[in-house]
Design a protein that fits this description.
Shape: globular
Helix content: 25-40%
Length: 609
Amino acid sequence: MTRYPAIAEHGMIGDLQTAALVSSDGTVDWWCTPRFDSPSVFASLLDAERGGHWQVAADMPDGSGVTVRQLYLSDTAILVTRFMTPDGVGEVADFMEPLTARTPTDRHRLTRIARVVRGSLPFALTCRPRFDYGRARHTLDMPDGHTAVFQGPGTDLHLQTTDDVVLRPDGDDVTARFTLTAGQMAAMTLTSAASGSAVAPQPSMADIYDAGERCRDFWQSWLRSSNYRGRWQDMVNRSAITLKLLTYAPTGAPVAAATMGLPEQIGGERNWDYRYTWVRDASLSVRVLIDLGFAEEAHAFRHWLRERVEAGGTASGDPLQIMYRVDGEPHLTEEILDHLEGYAGSRPVRAGNAAADQLQLDIYGEASDALLVGGDIGALRGWKALSKVLDWLADHWDEPDEGIWETRGGRQNFTYSRLMTWVAFERGVRAATRFARPADIERWTAARDAVFQQIVERGWHDKRQAFVQHYDTDVLDASLLVMPRVGFLSPHDPDWISTLDAMDEELVSDSLVYRYDPAASPDGLRGSEGTFNLCSFLYVEALARAGRLNQARYAFDKMLTYANPVGLFAEEIGPSGEQLGNFPQAFTHLALVTAAMALDEELGRRDGG
């Protein structure tokens, strides 16, 4: 087992309430249960010694003579890790059967099937759970050689194996060694449940095989709802599955990423907890899901968002908090887990997120766009709640805030925040007029026009000939790549083309795009970061809409080379092409889909398709 495998050397499996990462050496090194935002039971990704892991891999001394490859079964979330040696070829298939019910459960089962397809191959199993981010001890109960129960605080883990795999205690952990020959299979399941709960008897190989078939059928059936038939269908399908895996089925709320604490710079302090639902990120998913044809997921999230709006505001009087837990709970107290080493020594490791208390006015634009997209304005009660939000925003839009990038260097008059408040008023005025809903249209219209005028006067920098990050700087910001998409400017407007050219010169490095220059615009944090994948895909979309199709396609094709072997992206790309930040990131995969759709549409228009 590599002490800290590369972030990119992972695939993700999940059951729509939680998710696990599996490294390319067959190790489950990240799993939180029973929810995405629960404490971990496996977290060797953040501390190789204290975090805990579950490995099933080819048992070869020092890994000598083993070639390893990972792949997903086509159009599914079933991950296969293959081990190829001179004496045999084997694989481990990992999956979690989807839980589609709207009711949360504390029972989650991770299944691993080992098989050999050629020759003979020895396997080794090691299961070392560490509850509560590695802070809590556990006890081990082994009623027989095929069952081990790890008893932790509030949660038990039940490891069960088929007859070929005999478990042996190793302190409070377990190990096993077994050999399979061509055509043979063995299986292991790990079920989390509330302390003291009984689980089903040891499953048969036939039962486990049937569960795998149901998992495959679920994902392939779900994907048939997609209406995308463009040039990059495999990547779009993989991104759609990833977004679905990151969505909490009981509420319809997507999390920003499956992980916490993975660094934006190795050894740096930009190590955040992304296992929550950002209003911004999740709202942007609605248009993507609708565009792809996944109406049920879009409807579920919009219902969740309306509930947050109707529930009332924060203690400071804001109508919405910028992020919530997946069940809508607003308390995300940030703590430092000092006992964890951090990925490759990157500390501090943070659980919770203090940015939840920030003021980010742009979220009202994304939320309004999500609630009003497609001509669906929802129930009257939801409209009343949204109207109150826009009435509040009419009084508060002209305030400095922390901005989309959640900087900790003080509030500014961020141009992106103003842009999205313009979106909120524009969408509200349009919906109220079209559907004859009660609203203070005159006030919203006046606010919309005032925001527009302020952006073009104060957000525009004459010397730079570009729109800039905030009103008191000449720093560029890639978040403004959305200006044409939201309808603020035409993609061919001379001022927009000038801005795009300025970004191309300053923020773009071999088609990879930085968010901004933190040296020129201090964000209150030490260290640097890589290029931001979201921005790189926004850049592709902006180029395509501006008619620069050759440049857009080249940039897009190059971006796809940074995907990991199973098509997943983290948050950033480092200076040597390595993936950095939490993984996989929903924001990145959303932007990949929108870039693919825009580029495919523009290429089709050019080619007469």
